[in-house]
Amino acid sequence: MLENAIHTVIESIEVAPAVSLSVQMNGASIPVQSNLGFASQCIYFKKIREYSSEAISDCFAQLFQRITLLVGYRGSIDELQKGEIKNAILRHFSSLSFEEIYKAFQLDRSNQLAGDEQKIRTVTEHYQFFDVSYVTSVLVKYQHWLRQLQRDHHLPIAPEKSAPQLPKHSYDTEVEAYMIQTFEDFKMTNQLPTLCSFVYNWWGKQGVLKPFLNALSQRKLQQFREETAQVLRQRVRKDISWSVAYKTFLSQGDVDYQGSGNKPLTDALRKILSVKKEVLLRAFYQWKIENNT
Asked: C-alpha angle with apex 213: 212 to 215, nearest 5 degrees?
């Protein structure tokens, strides 16, 4: 079922119909990883307005973590500010996907988004205030950038209505194809996907992690603990709000990956779990490479 498969990965990484590593445009094959390839494929990404309320909360939590690290924000975003940013995105940018929002900040930090009408290119400065004004400024610039690229290269602005739709039962296969692709990308680039927790959870649901986890020695587990602590320390250097998570990890260490029953995870525990799953996902992919599985 589509709902079950997508909820498993918090619906944030649904791939486009007929997904491929490149797209054909004017006779040329353009990698999806390129800006032009991304612009041609983003119309197929699931839009924020299409998410369930339960899934969207987890996606925003991961998005805040990733973007603050990406832009080098040194500070803690309070819950009120997060709520205002979330509401602004839902009101004014719900036609975008989570992939596009993250891409917008990537483009902005690398100075690839158009600034004013004179096309002056400039990075949006957060001045250590990660607020609604900063976020909306980046997203407005992204929308301008995307429209310009669509016009210049005659890209479609929406999926063709006449395009055949995949039957519902095939979406599970598409999600699986995406997950497998994250592994193939790791083999080529040594880079993990953006939302490691959701990818890790999906592999766990398939039972694929069991052989890997069962083969772990105490020495390996200790190594993973040290790697987790190292990543948390690095996050603290970039964002002081991670210090609570780091201290919690040092005092508790092994946190249940599924949380404590139905009890909501605190922000600190959520951050710890995201890092632990990131460390384990990297080790799992390396294990798959070594064992040719």
From this structure: 70
Q: What are phi and psi of 211, to 5 degrees?
A: -60, -40
- pLDDT of residue 287 exceeding 90: yes
If you ran DSSP here, which 8-state letter would residue 125 be given? P
Give the model's pLDDT for residue 129. Answer: 64
Classify burial at 243, counting beta carbons within 10 Å of its beta carbon; exposed 0-12, middle 13-18, buried 19 or more: middle
**Rounded to two decimals, what is the model's pTM?**
0.50
Q: Return the closest-CA partner of residue 201 out of 185, 186, 179.
A: 179
Cross-strand partners of 29: 24
Q: How far is it, in rounded angstroms, from Cα 222 to Cα 64? A: 29
Q: Which residues are CB-neighbours of 242 under 8 A, at least 6 positions away?
A: 232, 235, 236, 271
CA 140/CA 25 separation, integer angstroms: 26
Provide the CA 286 distance to its chain's centre, in angstroms. 21
- How sure is the predictor about 133, in pLDDT bands with cuts at 50, 70 and 90? confident
Residue with the bigger pLDDT between 114 and 159: it is: 159
Could you give the CA distance from residue 166 to residue 25 in angstroms, rounded to a whole number? 23
